[in-house]
């Protein structure tokens, strides 16, 4: 059942190229997106003036990425919120808003409660859900099914990757409907998405390099992930993967925030992982990493092929293929999943069933 892999998590990491491709193909017709199965017409989309993304855990981290991508491409304001906060906050919702609930299981108690809260207020709801017929899928006005297939490992990998794809598809379609991009740009984005599965595959093929580095981190006490913009959102996911399965305390920081407190935690040898996929922010994050280094940090840099000068700063560099920077999360997350996995394995932990955690959190 693990198809020759030692753990479900590694099997599911390897299933990502297919899961991403399947999800993409499910909404692609003749080179354009067709969201009729989802039930969102271009007319429906035209009316949307505000988006709220509500989710828990990794699905919330997808929301953080989606916020950047949707706002940048479609120029629609997006708010991202933890479902457990949203449900009790008595949120003020725009009546032309769309509430998007992201959930692999479709059964997460807080996400379901948030969905009901939105429906009660008469706001249109869309579920991005993996499990067919789950509560969120049944109750949402519209459903965008991710085609990740069953995910067994508690640490999500392929479901996260397919949720990202669904978010990009919505962002691109909204951008077109809202007149923010022309046909040519639209097709270019669609074509770029089609290249992601192969690029993900290539990163996974290089896994031994990450394994070698990760195995040396098994005794780490703390690990910090730093980045800006979309890279900060990736850091949130990398950090959750790490703490969830390797039991190492880790934090994700917006790189510019380090000076406002966190940098005092850096000691001799503390591992700081910088994520740098956004060229406009590259130099800014590099200088934050240099600041960490001068306080004794040991640095890993995750960036795009070509940025080889990162090796002047970091102790260990790992590279991902080039893509449109809006979609870089889909590639950058892979080495971070592998890091979490291999640290957990090096520590001899139960990778697929980490202590105190359940695959789906159906009670508050
Ligand atoms: O089933 P859901 O997507 O609603 O689950 C949300 C979170 O519980 C989930 O993403 C959790 O954070 C994962 N274990 C992270 O790997």
What's the SSE blueprint?
Elements: H1 8-14, H2 16-26, E1 28-29, E2 32-33, H3 42-47, E3 50-55, H4 57-74, E4 78-82, H5 83-86, E5 97-103, H6 109-120, E6 124-129, H7 135-139, E7 142-145, H8 158-177, H9 183-205, H10 207-215, E8 222-227, H11 230-246, E9 249-254, E10 271-276, H12 282-294, E11 298-304, E12 316-320, H13 329-346
Parallel strand pairs: 3-4, 3-5, 5-6, 6-7, 8-9, 8-10, 10-11, 11-12
Antiparallel strand pairs: 1-2
Helix pairs in contact: 2-8, 2-9, 4-8, 4-11, 8-9, 9-13, 10-13, 11-13
The site of 5-amino-5-deoxy-1-O-phosphono-D-mannitol has 16 residues, from helix 4 and helix 11.
Organism: Blautia stercoris
GO molecular function, one term: glutamine-fructose-6-phosphate transaminase (isomerizing) activity
Catalytic activity: D-fructose 6-phosphate + L-glutamine = D-glucosamine 6-phosphate + L-glutamate
């Amino acid at each position: 059942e693990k198809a020759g892999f030692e753990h479900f998590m590694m099997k599911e990491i390897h299933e990502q190229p297919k899961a991403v491709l399947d999800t993409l193909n499910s909404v692609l017709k003749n080179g354009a997106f067709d969201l009729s199965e989802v039930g969102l017409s271009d007319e429906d989309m035209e009316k949307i003036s505000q988006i709220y993304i509500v989710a828990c855990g990794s699905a919330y981290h997808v929301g953080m990425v989606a916020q950047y991508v949707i706002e940048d491409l479609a120029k629609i304001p997006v708010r991202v919120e933890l479902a457990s906060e949203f449900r009790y906050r008595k949120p003020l919702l725009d009546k032309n808003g769309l509430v998007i609930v992201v959930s692999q299981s479709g059964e997460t108690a807080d996400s379901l409660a948030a969905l009901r809260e939105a429906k009660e207020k008469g706001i249109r709801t869309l579920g991005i859900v993996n499990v067919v017929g789950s509560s969120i899928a049944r109750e949402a006005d519209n459903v965008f099914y991710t085609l990740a297939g069953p995910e067994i490992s508690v640490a999500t990998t392929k479901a996260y990757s397919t949720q990202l794809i669904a978010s990009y598809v919505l962002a691109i379609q909204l951008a077109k409907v809202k007149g923010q991009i022309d046909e040519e740009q639209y097709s270019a984005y669609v074509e770029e998405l089609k290249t992601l599965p192969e690029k993900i595959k290539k990163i996974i093929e290089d896994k031994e390099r990450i394994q070698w580095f990760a195995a040396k981190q098994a005794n780490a006490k703390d690990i910090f992930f730093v980045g800006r913009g979309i890279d900060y959102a990736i850091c949130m996911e990398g950090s959750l993967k790490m703490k969830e399965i390797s039991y190492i305390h880790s934090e994700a920081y917006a790189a510019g925030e380090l000076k406002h407190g966190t940098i005092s935690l850096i000691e001799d040898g503390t591992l700081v992982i910088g994520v740098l996929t956004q060229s406009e922010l590259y130099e800014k994050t590099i200088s934050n990493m240099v600041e960490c280094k001068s306080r004794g940090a040991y640095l890993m840099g995750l960036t795009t092929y070509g940025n080889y000068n990162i090796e002047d700063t970091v102790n260990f560099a790992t590279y991902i293929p080039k893509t449109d920077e809006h979609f870089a999360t889909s590639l950058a997350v892979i080495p971070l999943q592998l890091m979490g996995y291999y640290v957990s394995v090096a520590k001899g932990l139960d990778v697929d069933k980490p202590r105190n955690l359940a695959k789906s959190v159906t009670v508050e």
